[in-house]
Write a structure and sequence with these properties.
Elements (H helix, E strand, L loop, with lengths): L23 E5 L8 E2 L16 E4 L2 H10 L7 E7 L4 E2 L15 E4 L3 E7 L7 H16 L8
Antiparallel strand pairs: 1-4, 2-7, 3-6, 4-7, 5-6
């Protein structure tokens, strides 16, 4: 697996936040390979009526695994080691909104992410835990608490 520490990641947009050099991960059900680009402009996994202006990623491998398992679609959940191709910022949907600071190390970019490698060593959720996540998301959608800052 390539060492993302060898890559010159773009500048962070968020002022005052620590400079996170990764490695960075993205979870999805899309079947991709090294060199492929993940781009904004697709429907949200959590609010399908919203077309996303950003692509989201995290520095936590299992966080990307959770996103992969919750992703829309019928493919197998997959986690990729990725590198941002442009500026990125803290994900405002969790940073200082749900958690103080950015302990989830969650980010977003209006620029594509380049896939560097497939990641196989992430923790899968037990079926019961995955169902609990689906139930929580359904409850959020039902009462509009699931607002996405796009």
């Amino acid at each position: 697996m390539p060492d993302p520490g060898d890559h010159g990641y773009p500048e962070r947009v968020s002022a005052g936040a620590a400079d996170d050099r990764g490695p960075f991960f993205h979870g999805t059900k899309a079947d991709l390979g090294p060199g492929d680009l993940l781009t904004p402009g697709f429907r949200s996994n959590y609010r399908p009526e919203i077309v996303m202006n950003h692509i989201y990623f995290t520095a936590q491998r299992d966080g990307a695994g959770l996103a992969a398992e919750l992703a829309a679609g019928h493919g197998e959940p997959r986690v990729y080691l990725v590198e941002p191709t442009g500026a990125f910022e803290d994900d405002p949907n969790v940073t200082d909104k749900k958690f103080p600071g950015n302990p989830t190390r969650s980010y977003r970019s209006a620029h594509p992410l380049r896939v560097l490698a497939v990641v196989d060593d992430w923790t899968r959720l037990a079926p019961e835990a995955l169902q609990e996540w689906h139930d929580r998301l359904a409850a959020l959608r039902a009462d509009d608490r699931g607002e996405i800052i796009n």
